[in-house]
Amino acid sequence: xxxxxxxxVSLGILAVAAFAxxxxxxxxxxxxxxxxxxxxxxxANGDHAVVLSRLPRTVSALLIGAALGLAGxxxxxxxxxxxxxxxxxxxxxxxxxxxxTAIYVFGVTSFTGYVWFALAGxxxAALVVYxxxxxGREGATPVKLALAGAALTAGLTSxxxxxxxxxxxxxxxxxxxxxxxxxxxGWDVLLPxxxxxxxxxxxxLASGRALNGLSLGDDVARGLGxxxxxxxxxxxxxxxxxxxxxxxxxxxxxxxxLVIPHLVxxxxxxxxxxILVLSAVLAPVLLLVADVVGRLILPxxxxxxxxxxxxxxxPVFIAIIRRRKLAEL
Length: 329
Hints:
- This protein is 77% helix and 0% strand.
- By secondary structure, the chain is mainly alpha-helical.
């Protein structure tokens, strides 16, 4: 399928998923009621109020899904590692440990406080992983990056557990964030998020040509006149902004940044200029679908979206790797 047609189809699927997100939930609503609430809302109408209350949650899923899809795609392209993902590379663990530190040491409980710590934790984790993987003559190979990320995740998770065991108050605050959710995210959370996501997305969407060069190998990229170190550094800034802001808002959400780039690569081919755009469109689709399914399977309660993305994403990823060899990008 031509990439332009694939993009059009993806946008159509995204629109359907977004409409389903505001229409479906524990309280059943007719499609006409949902449409009227969106185009001509009556604040005194209880059904309209339910629809309007779901809008921030839907927008949260759109923004966070696009951020994690872009970040995962860029990470895989930068490292030429098919397993690169904010979770596997230690970025989520860095953000989580920084947020726990903010809660335990500084008593921070709001998103506007979380975001700065999450950004710092994500950036520090990225630096540590790259520094450790760079040791030795071969430098930061895909395998060493994955191993360094896994080791850092294990270490930070242990430290995080030690802090949580020693402080019941910190545990109570952190556990609702840790599972990964877009529930309860209002406009007060979304508005501070937008500048970080906008800058990070702009950096990565403009990096398609650089990622195409890196996909050929560092030596070939240098031969084509590309400054490899500068390219990776600029893209790393974009990844940190997207991962840090998204993780601060919704908690660590797995599999989006891992599954979607592989799916898009199989549909659209190896051109990262298209892979980035399509990942930014299809990753929110998976997040929205996971959120809607999580609301419907256990009414009137719900399963957090961080759990549902793993439940839905794991079989999809297994199916992808059974069809393709993903040893290297």
